[in-house]
Design brief:
The chain is of the alpha+beta class and 103 residues long. The protein has one domain: Alpha-Beta Plaits. The protein is built from 3 helices and 4 strands. The chain has helices at 18-33, 68-75, 79-84; strands spanning 2-9, 39-44, 57-65, 95-100. It has a 4-stranded antiparallel sheet with strand order 2-3-1-4. It starts with a strand and ends with a strand. The mean pLDDT is 97.
Length: 103
């Protein structure tokens, strides 16, 4: 199992529309990726390690797939539509990481 994580930095003055992300973007992603997508998790950053400090990431999206190849096959044909929707909910530059789930 692999996890594709998308991290949205919590930069000073950046915007992130969590309602749009959860109610429009993620459902569109689920529809486009179909059965290859095994699970989705969305997290909203609340704070950093010090009391009262800002979270490093304003939001994180995590997508589960059986393999890197399954992700690439499902995402590739829809990459332009999925990535093209990003400006509708944020002005930050997301960072993507692909990880192997161990536990």
């Amino acid at each position: 199992m692999i996890k594709v994580s998308v991290f949205y930095p919590n930069n000073e003055g950046s915007k992130f529309d969590m309602g749009y992300y959860c109610n429009s973007h993620i459902p569109m992603v689920k529809q486009k990726l179909g059965a290859a997508l095994k699970g989705v998790f969305v997290e909203q950053g609340l704070g950093g390690p010090e009391p009262g400090s800002r979270a490093t990431y304003i939001a994180m999206g995590h997508l589960l797939f059986d393999s890197v190849e399954a992700f690439q096959a499902a995402f590739g044909p829809h990459a332009q539509a999925i990535m093209g929707d990003v400006p509708n909910y944020t002005d930050t530059q997301p960072t993507v990481q692909i990880s192997e789930v161990k536990i």
